[in-house]
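If you are new to this repository, start here. Below is one unmodified record pulled from the training split, so you can see the exact layout before writing a loader.
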Amino acid sequence: MMDKVKQDSKIPRSYGQFCGLARALDIVGDRWTLLIVRELLPGPMRYTELKASLAGIATNLLAERLRTLEANGIVERRLEEAGVVYALTPWGAGLREPMEALGRWGAPLMLTGRDGDSFQPRWLALALPGLLRGMTATPSVELGVETDGSLMILRIDEEGPSAIVRPDQQPDTILTAAPEVIIGLAVGGLTIDQALSMGDLQGDRRVLCEVFPPGRATAAAEFPPLPTDD
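And here is the target side for that same chain:
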């Protein structure tokens, strides 16, 4: 793998530092690159699907970023029944852990609401397991999370949290709420009662308490107040 990166990489700019972080940013630090990886973490996508999900990216820039990711062994093209799709290589999938950590760090910034920002429900498939990292459950517990008309399943078992973007069946317990409410629950910024006052729960409240234990708090509790215009 590393030989392929050395031989095939075409990096337009480099920090020129012998540091793992600097060399990683040489490859994935350009604008939109990590967001393309985020789209592919749940599974392969066609070019048109990527373009539709990444509102604001120019067609030529998306093509350029994909070529760079392919050249560096992070993304590969596959031929499936639906046509050509883009998928992460095993090395590219290794970006999940650092991206989850970055998402945890940035989650408090979402508590102020969307403020006109675009949103795709599938992005929660990366955010929620990352925010709940370290939690386990035996026996396993499953919660349906519905937001903006899209349903995913958040599962916690002895291995930890995971998310299913397109579930084959509907879970017994489903929380329907805005994404900022769900994120607020995950970081401990909202209580279950507060979340339910802004959303709807069908099924067993105990499932919600197992997934989002009362009193649980993350780094959001130490997040400094956002600056105001005053």
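Two things worth knowing about this chain: Confidence is low (pLDDT under 50) at residues 4-11. The two ends are 53 Å apart (CA to CA).
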